Amino acid sequence: MLEEAVLFKGTREGIHIYLNDEVEFPQVVNSLEHRLASSRNFFKGARVVINTGQRTLSAEQVATVSSVLKEYEGVQLIRLEQSKPQAPPAIPREMTALIVEKPVRSGQQLYHPGHVIVIGDVNPGAEIVAEGNVIVMGALRGIAHAGYGGDKSAFVVANLMSPSQVSIAGILARQPDDEFSDAKMGPEIARLRNGQIVIEPCQRAIYE
Predict the structure, then answer these.
(1) Within a domain: 87
(2) Which residues pair with 139 in a beta bridge?
(3) 54, 65, 73, 184 - which has most CB atoms within 10 Å?
(4) Which residue among 31, 56, 81 closes a domain?
């Protein structure tokens, strides 16, 4: 069990000694002494790096480790170092959907940190701002901002796509002013492609 408290690894720089930060310090010191004593000739004249894991040693503990090493002829302590704590894996944030079951009228502004689904029309002068997608089950004639905050995979869908302005992840549609004047019947999707917003029938997008 003593050996589990320390780990030795040879490198070009010398010998790295890893001190298990989950083991009580006195047990680590005991294990270190035991391993050094059992391989005294191996460590003679060795250059040593001590890695304390994520444990921060006090001045007294550093002195204890140094005194253990000094008992062995020629052992040179190059440095003490700590391992950087590993960042926890990012947890994907699940976006919620705001469902609006009525038309969004001129002068209204809706913001939601997720998806926005409007069951009705978005009239001229109305504005939808979503960190996720914007889905309009009717005519989109107002302003729609999807991917607010930088999500370039976001999109805008409408049964009748005739907005006064569309943006995705802060990128505005660059179509001519009359692009939406002759809106086609049927659902269309606006999304980013090669850094620009393209608008096309939803059916075509499904098969790509």
Answers:
(1) no
(2) 160
(3) 65
(4) 81
Confidence of residue 90 (pLDDT cuts 50, 70, 90): low
Q: What is the CA 182 to chain-centroid distance, rounded?
A: 41
pLDDT digits (tens, 9 = 90+) for 183-195: 566 789 999 999 8
DSSP string of 93-111, one letter each residue: PPPPEEEE-SPBPTT-EEE
DSSP state of 152: T
User: For residue range 149-187, what is the model confidence (pLDDT) as tens digits?
Assistant: 899 999 999 999 999 999 999 998 855 444 554 456 678
91 by Cβ neighbours in 10 Å (0-12 / 13-18 / 19+) ranks as: exposed
In terms of domains, do 101 and 72 share one? no
The answer to whether 150 and 169 have CB atoms below 8 angstroms apart is yes
The answer to whether residue 117 scores a pLDDT higher than 90 is yes
Q: Are 74 and 42 within one domain?
A: yes
* 60 vs 144: CA distance, rounded Å: 63
Give 157-190 as a DSSP string: EEEEE--SEEEETTEEP---TTTTTTPPSS-EEE
What global pTM score does this model have?
0.54
Number of domains in the chain: 2
Output DSSP code: residue 131. S
